[in-house]
Amino acid sequence: MTVPVIGVLALQGDVREHVAALTGVGAQARPVRRPEELDAVDGLVIPGGESTTISKLTDIFELREPIDKRIAAGLPVYGSCAGMIMLAAEVLDGRPDQRGFAGIEMTVRRNAFGRQVDSFEAPVALAGVDGGPFHAVFIRAPWVERVGAGVDVLGEVTDGPAAGRIVAVRQGNLVATSFHPELTGDLRLHRYFVDLVRAA
Fold it and tell me: A GO biological process this protein is involved in (predicted)?
């Protein structure tokens, strides 16, 4: 596979920014809103946004079962911020009617770093991503409180009151970060995911 086709779940959130970043690292990126569009992709990005809204729209657009099936079949998926929440097996501080895809065996705390006014930027060293620490943008971000045995921790906060909190993980073909690489201009994480899609 020379040019992988990667969809961006285009129900709400940073869709355009992810499409631009994926295109910038050599993928063919396209928005996904319908099951037939999902059928045509080699990988999927679930963008940042509002996780409860994405959850509701996933049902409205009849994408929940198709995405569940593709994940179970090994589809590579990357979730950023709200996308991390959507991939988590367990969500703390979520709404009772909120449902995700439960692809990664982890417990995530929604809005763990605080409200919009508490958004911040910090360097995060990412395992498997060369070139030094990643300049991470956290906006009403979750963090990971627990990971299962099959989950690799790719990155943690190194400084400040949240030092040691897990903010990047991988389980098989699924990757999640609590920050927004699509807002930084640093394409290394998107390149990491595109390489994963090619390998899959």
Answer: L-glutamine catabolic process
Place of tokens 């897990």: 166
Is 105 tagged catalytic? no
**90 included as an active-site residue:** no
Backbone angles phi, psi at 133, to 5 degrees: -60, 150
Tell me how far apart the 2 most distant CA atoms of the chain are, in Å.
Answer: 45
Whether 121 is catalytic is no
Q: With 90 as the cut, is the pLDDT of residue 149 above it?
A: yes
Read off the CATH number of the domain in which 167 is found. Answer: 3.40.50.880
Catalytic residue, chosen from 17, 18, 156, 182, is 182
Q: Torsion angle of alpha carbons 151, 197, 100, 62, nearest 10°?
A: -160
Range(s) of the domain holding residue 46: 5-199
The answer on whether 188 is annotated among ligand-binding residues is no
Summarize the confidence of residues 61-89 as an average pLDDT.
Answer: 97
Q: Return the exposure string of 87-118: e unless at least 16 CB atoms fall within 10 Å of the residue's CB, then b.
A: bbbebeebeeebbbbebbbbbbbbbbbeeeee
Q: How confident is the model at residue 117 (pLDDT cuts 50, 70, 90)?
A: low
| Domain count of the fold of the chain | 1
Give the whole-number percent of the chain exceeding pLDDT 70. Answer: 96
